[in-house]
Design goal:
Blueprint lengths: L9 E3 L9 E3 L2 H10 L7 E5 L5 E7 L7 E9 L7 E5 L4 H13 L4 E6 L10 H15 L6 E2 L3 E2 H7 L5 E5 L8 H6 L7 E5 L7 H8 L4 E4 L8 H16 L11
Parallel strand pairs: 1-3, 6-7, 6-11, 7-8, 7-9, 10-11, 10-12
Antiparallel strand pairs: 2-5, 3-4, 4-5
Helix pairs in contact: 2-3, 2-7
């Protein structure tokens, strides 16, 4: 990843990508390239779709309000999404936007809104959540764009969780201990789910239900009470450092 050109403009598209393909941009994408970035005929941009890798493309057939892209060589191969679910009690919109962006940057493969007893926001704008995920991926060189799942009630979430999957739930009532030590001996074979509760935390019944799971780690995030959006960054950093992809080299460019 160190050789990647972070100065390049990137655009997420939904079309299939291959050398020689010609893409008709949406009105929104055309406006962004032509009026926000002020690109002109022949300008280069990197494009990706979360499936085929990243490609260099150039603008052509440019008019005042529309443009097309001609796809050239592939720059990076497509990595698989990390089998890392970021599961969270929804927040108010501005903080939810931030959380979605940071979870994407931190390498989550799936975002799952989980409704708990103390969750204050129960209606999720999935389109806006996905928009924030895509924007973060465009800005940070992410190719494996996280999936945004539908909201689910906590009891249903726990019932559907595979017994072999590691669940890390962050609890302000957990004993203060080194979180890296808590994860050091864990062998991850069926992926990881990280669960962050709402402001006010889990209630006693939820905490008991979580504790009965066969493959669970109850994790403290330190001596200070963190806001849920801050806890997202802290928890994912711990996971990636202890048992995630921070320990292995990034995939090489094409």
């Amino acid at each position: 990843m160190s050789a990647y050109d972070f100065t390049a403009q990137r655009l997420f598209v939904r079309d299939d990508l291959a050398p020689g393909a010609e893409l008709t941009l949406t009105a929104e994408a055309s406006n962004y390239l032509l009026n926000v970035l002020r690109m002109r005929e022949g300008a280069a941009i990197h494009v990706f779709n979360g499936r085929d890798g990243e490609f260099r493309a150039t603008l052509f057939d440019v008019s005042r309000r529309a443009a097309r892209l001609r796809v050239a060589q592939r720059l990076r191969v497509q990595p698989e999404r990390a089998d890392l679910d970021y599961c969270f009690a929804p927040l108010k919109q501005a903080r939810l936007d931030y959380m979605a962006q940071k979870a994407t940057e931190m390498g989550a493969g799936r975002l799952i809104p989980v409704i708990t007893h103390r969750t204050q926001v129960r209606r999720i704008n999935s389109a806006r959540l996905e928009s924030n995920v895509i924007e973060a991926a465009e800005q940070c060189g992410v190719l494996a764009v996280p999936e945004v799942a539908a909201a689910i009630e906590l009891p249903d979430f726990l019932a559907r969780l595979p017994a072999e999957r590691l669940l890390v739930f962050c609890d302000e009532r957990a004993a203060l201990a080194n979180p890296m030590d808590a994860l050091a001996d864990r062998v991850v074979e069926e992926g990881v789910s990280v669960l962050i509760g709402p402001e006010g935390g889990f209630d006693d019944a939820e905490r008991a239900a979580l504790g009965r799971l066969p493959n669970v780690v109850r994790l403290s995030l330190g001596p200070r009470v963190l806001r849920a959006d801050t806890a997202a960054v802290a928890a994912l950093a711990i996971i990636q450092a202890a048992i995630g992809d921070w320990r292995s080299p990034a995939p090489s460019d094409v």
